Amino acid sequence: MAAHRYFIVVMIGLCITALMAKGQNDQLKNDWLLSSSAYKASIKASDKGDEVILSNGLVKRIFRIRPNVVCVDYLNLINGQQLLRSLKPEARLTINGANYNVGGLNGQKENAYLLPEWVDQFTTGKNDFQFSTFEISAIVPKINWKSKFWASNHKAPTGQRISFHYQSAVAALSGLTITVNYELYDGLPLISKSLSIENKGNKSFRIDRVVNEILGLVEEQSAVVGSAEKMAKQQGIYFETNYAFNNAMRYDMSDQTSHWKVDSTYSSQVNYDYQTPCLLEIYPDKAPGIALEKGEVFHSVCTYELLMDSYDRERRGLAIRKMYSTIAPWTTANPIFMHLVSSNDEQVRTAIDQCVATGYEALILSFGSHCNMEDTAAANIKKWKEIADYAHSRNVFIGSYSLFSSRKVSDQDDVIDPKTNKPGGAFFGNAPCFGSKWGLEYRDKIKNFYKQTGFDIWENDGPYPGDVCASTTHPGHKGLDDSQWRQMDIQKDLYKSLNEQGVYINAPDWYFLDGTHKIAIGYREVNFSLPRENQMILNRQNIYDGTWEKNASMGWGFVPLTRYQGGGEEAVLEPLKDHLKDYEQLMMQYYGAGVQACYRGPRLYDTEETKQRVVNVIDWYKKYRDILNSEIIHLRRADGRDWDGILHVNPNLKTKGMLMLYNPLKQKITRTIKVPLYYSGLSSAAVLKEKNGLPKRLMLNRNYEIEYACTLEPESYSWVTIE
Length: 723
Hints:
22% of the residues lie in helices and 28% in strands. The chain is globular.
């Protein structure tokens, strides 16, 4: 009997273990961040024909289309969260000084929640743009990216698109047609929205504001007292548009379009003064101010709406990074480049040869070098074409630096301050207007240089930073009201056209969705005049902090081979042969994170021993390039007091993880580290190998973690592969 009972207990235990394992495997299988291929976009009309349903298994959005189009359901299918509490117009336009809604229905009295049966009683506004037809098609890439660099994703995004068309019965709006576009992506809880205004009439219209998204969202926080500024905004959805600038190196600080407002119609909210920030409107604050002439089409900003299923910082960051790598695959390109400081052509050729010898893939002529892209003389173009041809003959890409903003050009071409009606008042004090004669010529000179020379990379410092300009004589804009929109268009067109020619673009501002590839990871330049031991810690902090919302390939770091921003011998690496340990450590920190740094100086090596150190690092990086360019899990931030490190994960690779560990202390340490492997796709066991050591098999606990014991030598690093 005892043996029989023991057998039953064992069997029950095995069954429970099997069920738990199955549950874990199902969770891994269904998590879109690990496996997204099953989530395909679908857009179709309901059986009754009165609704259109957008769904991909992760997000669902339903639109009632009679008597007018209105969103009645916005559901996160991952966690079941309903985001919508009240109906709002599809858009709002300010035309010739008057406001007009696009779509929408009136009549909702209770705005804390929405019941489907209420919608049948709602009515249209007589002056609103009315729905006429819709059409469904496949998503078309917004940029025809010419991919020629190494990238972790070369595929364009896929999904479905629906376009709702509207017209107005208002006589003053005769000839205007509105199209509102929604795009639902495969494999992501992501929907984008944009609209266009076409003038088919016989007169011009002044477009003063285009609000392309209005959402009555469920409040994130319910407070009896408190201002809208102090209360939390909805965290179940992340918004981003292709209209951002600020030089902050972060989107949330660069965003120019998200406006969280109070909703005066929400009379049952808890807040006594009706200050709950639960109404979201998307529009550029200082744009467009556009005169839309006969036959012209105006295109709004594009709003990307990514649904979140967690408050966990890492998971939220992974979702945003997945969005970028999918909708802007060019941001996953990540060539290995050197930043050359040159004064003559021979130094450039020598640097190209050093790139070949060490495995570097690209050379960028840094600021202070002798390449001038604004020189249109035939001799200058001929010289740089010959150098580019030499680089290409050796399979090396070549690029150069050029500054647009943060410099004074002339009183005629600089931004005019609307407060003084004189040059000045720009983000950088004095700066050229992109719509000035000089600005338009600068655009054309850059395009011409790349077309004529065949250069591959553009380091564009001082991108257009959003300056408004009160000039009425600049050919690229009519006045103050349209100055920001027109300048933004010029900058975005330049980036897009170069990207489509295969040019890689480094630019320190948030133009990723319009064709740039890389931004500064986020650092203080004067820190590179500090001693190297300080720089090592600070660099790892910058990497850790700069990779929460952007992929490692989207940021660049910095390594001053020669003096930069001051500092003495303790700050630089030259002569390289005398600082090999620090040189290797700095390279490993960046390459080990998948981050390219600007190795700024006259050369990559000065002796055979130095050359071999560089070759060893680059060979190692290329061997593990796929995993080193995969997602980062943040383990411990560098503080100089104990170990720090990051973990790369990728469930689609044989090497599913790579640990990068650092010991900043002057003594050997032994630590047992909890390593979270959920996003590696592993569920039961992992095989670890430190450097070239023996493999070690460890079991995962119920939190998908392992405990890894490691010993790190003083002021050293180590790496561990996980399979």
